Amino acid sequence: QVQLLESGGGLVQPGGSLRLSCVASGNIFRINAMGWYRQAPGKQRELVARISSGGSINYADSVKDRFTISRDNAKNTVYLQMNSLKPEDTAVYYCNLNGQPIGRAVNYWGQGTQVTVSS
What we know:
By secondary structure, this protein is mainly beta. The protein is about 0% helix and about 60% strand. The strands form 2 sheets. Strands 2, 4, 5, 6, 9, 10 and 11 form a 7-stranded mixed β-sheet that branches. A 4-stranded antiparallel β-sheet has the order 1-3-8-7, with no helix packed on it.
């Protein structure tokens, strides 16, 4: 099966920066897209950023001027550079891989990494 491992989370003051990494391993066949989601306490999980196999990138409106997603296809690794962090960005960030091992797309999820923005 496919396994995702996130790293790079931590505690940072407002205005600071963090860089998240996610490495995919296992039986990886066709990859449709990789991306990042987040979930704050008491809130629903939401899309932060996503990059497709064709290079199309989508950002949530709340982060598109501050965050940058990138991917190293050879290493099956996706990154999220987060700048100008705000307290509202505090959440558990989850790596997502949308793949197609047989003929139907499947979503794989990492365990999450905590990002806390606070003074």
